[in-house]
Write a structure and sequence with these properties.
Blueprint (H helix, E strand, L loop, with lengths): L14 H15 L11 H8 L3 H14 L2 E4 L3 E4 L31 E2 L12 H14 L1 H5 L8 H15 L8 E4 L2 H9 L7 E5 L4 H9 L3 E5 L1 E2 L2 E2 L1 H6 L4 E4 L13 H12 L5 E5 L24 E6 L11 E4 L2 H10 L9 H12 L2 H28 L3 E3 L7 E7 L4 H10 L2 E2 L1 E2 L14 E7 L8 H12 L1
Parallel strand pairs: 3-15, 5-6, 5-9, 9-10, 10-11
Antiparallel strand pairs: 1-2, 4-12, 7-8, 11-12, 13-14, 14-17, 16-17
Bound molecules: ligand 76U.
Amino acid sequence: MFFLTLDKNGESKFKYQQIYDGIKEKALQGKLKAHEKLPSKRQLANELKVSINTITTAYEQLLAEGYIYTVERKGFYVENIDHIVGIENELNNKLPNDLKEEQDDKGGWLSLSHMTSDLLSFPFNEWLKCQQKVIKNHKKDLSELAHPQGPYKVRKTISRMIGLTRGVICEPEQIVIGAGTPSLVGQLMELQKLDSVVAVEDPGYSRFYTLLKKMDFVVKPISLDEKGAEIEQVAASKAKFLFVTPSHQFPTGIIMPVSRRIELLNWAAEADDRYIVEDDYDSEFKYETDSIPSLQSIDRNHRVIYTGTFSKTLFPGIRISYMVLPPKLLREYRKHSANLMQYSNLIALFTLHYFIESGAYAKHVKRMSHHYELKRKLLINLLKKRFKHKVEIMDIPAGLHFRASFVTEKTYKEVIEKARQVKLEIYSMKRFMLEYKYEEDSKVDMILGFANIKEEDIEEAVDRLYQCIM
Ligand code: 76U
């Protein structure tokens, strides 16, 4: 009797798979010896009471994978394979518990996160119409790998748009499209000498900070004054690259006045290899006045790398961002880009092209801007009403979040812990303090986002916040 038993009523696997698995396992465990003869197909079929076809399918698969071999007119033999090293323990193949992810459906949660956008009013119908056009017109483009910088047509649309809305001066050739700003920053910084000094705003965007540190740059945090990154510190830093968010400092919200912008541009122009990365992540949302032109638009020396994203104007899950490289860096990028791939989804990129071209994008941004402005005002009013003199709001009319300071005896840890209990998604300033330590007694600073909370839920969210902080 051969060693296999079949679970004939087993629903999970076909019989041939069970036979295949049985022989494979025995071969791997050394229970079948190298060059041992296997029963003939007919013999095994009789023994297991299955058809010869079933045995043939199992043997063919084992042959294809190299577990067994045939000798003509003699039969099937076990291949000479090494015993696989590893502890024979079922638990061994299981994922350790500390790596398991909790699947919380966020039911009952309210969000004051700065990372989200409001999808309730997204014009999905328009988007799908544009997507249909892509499927109709771009089969050839979709079947091929795109240019590493992204399809020219899409770059052209983006360059025209940021020219109009942000004053960015560029040709489609200068644009690199990517799946997320950090991945573009990674591509840009790979071209630089690793031990160079890179200066970042502190408080600032911790993902850039961590990324640059991991890449082995010397990262210098720059404090902020009321105009943004302090110019004296920038000058003293010996940095080659400076990362800034002039339109709406992340996360404090400071809008950099033109005087500081010019100081920074002049600092960059003073030496050959100095650059400023202008992270223009949410400038489309400027309330009460017109939006403020980009830093790139007043640069006369090709020293600004402009980065933009559709995470705020569309939604973060779309993962479409772009950077604009000055000619010298573009040349370096092109030299290295032969090995690079375009990581964005081409259907989404071409859809975006039609979405912008048809005017649907501008219309959407305008509508959302109005909508966000209302939610922002409502949140601020309700915070003042509830917290009274215990809250101070940095009321800068821009973006999808603002900073608020609360007078309290609670610690950051207590606030965040309580937020989890009352199901409120919220982030404190601690997330953005890179090296500078802000902690003050009797005070916590929060970054409050209002994009992804429904108007009718704002009062409840403020209530929960009150429970966390007071
Ligand atoms: C982005 C800043 C300062 C860029 C941002 C964001 O990758 O294009 C914030 C956090 O979506 P991407 O990133 C755009 N620069 O705040 C947007 N916010 C981040 C992504 F949602 C997260 O981690 O605190």
